């Protein structure tokens, strides 16, 4: 494709440049010990019972982060496109992260987080 004296060539994304890698495997929660089943529709990244996650991704599903601290849920946000978004804080590196909730998440825990936001 040519635009104003510049030529652009399409380059398909390489595996390292993709922002999302599907990695949907079950796991045992490092916080509560719950056996968490795969989500099947996307990449499962947090416990359905306590909502904790492991800080192991740089981009969703890539498992490339070396921190491996526990991400504790500290609140929620409502997003018009994503629905309920869980806000996390890492106990090791102290970074904050956001993640969409899953349909089978513990609703009582989500309500508890929502009450903390007020």
User: DSSP helix count?
Assistant: 1
Q: What do the pLDDT scores average to?
A: 82
How many domains?
1
Strand content: 25-35%
Radius of gyration: 17 Å
Shape: globular
- Percent helix: under 10%
Q: In angstroms, what separates the terminal alpha carbons?
A: 52 Å
Largest sheet features: 4 strands, antiparallel
Number of DSSP strand runs: 8
Structural class: mainly beta
Low-pLDDT parts are 10-14
Spell the H/E element sequence.
EEEEEEEEH
* Main sheet strand line-up: 5-6-7-8
Can you give a write-up of this model?
There is one protein chain. The chain is mostly beta strands and 118 residues long. It has one domain (24-116). The protein is 8% helix and 28% strand. The chain has one helix and eight strands, in the order ββββββββα. The chain has one helix at residues 107-116; strands at 2-3, 6-7, 27-28, 35-36, 53-54, 70-79, 83-90, 96-100. The strands form three sheets. A four-stranded antiparallel β-sheet has the order 5-6-7-8, with helices on one face. A hairpin with a 2-residue loop joins β1 and β2 (6-7). The N and C termini lie far apart (52 Å).
List the topology elements.
Blueprint: E1 2-3, E2 6-7, E3 27-28, E4 35-36, E5 53-54, E6 70-79, E7 83-90, E8 96-100, H1 107-116
Antiparallel strand pairs: 1-2, 3-4, 5-6, 6-7, 7-8
């Amino acid at each position: 494709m040519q635009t104003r004296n510049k030529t652009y060539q399409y380059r398909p994304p390489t595996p390292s440049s993709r922002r999302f890698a599907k990695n949907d495997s079950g796991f045992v929660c490092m916080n509560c010990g719950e056996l968490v089943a795969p989500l099947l529709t996307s990449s499962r990244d947090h416990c359905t019972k306590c909502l904790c996650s492991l800080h192991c991704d740089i981009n969703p599903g890539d498992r490339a982060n070396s921190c491996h601290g526990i991400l504790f849920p500290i609140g929620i946000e409502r997003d018009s496109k994503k629905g309920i978004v869980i806000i996390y804080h890492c106990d090791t590196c102290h970074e904050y992260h956001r993640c969409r909730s899953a349909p089978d998440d513990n609703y009582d825990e989500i309500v508890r987080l929502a009450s903390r936001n007020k």
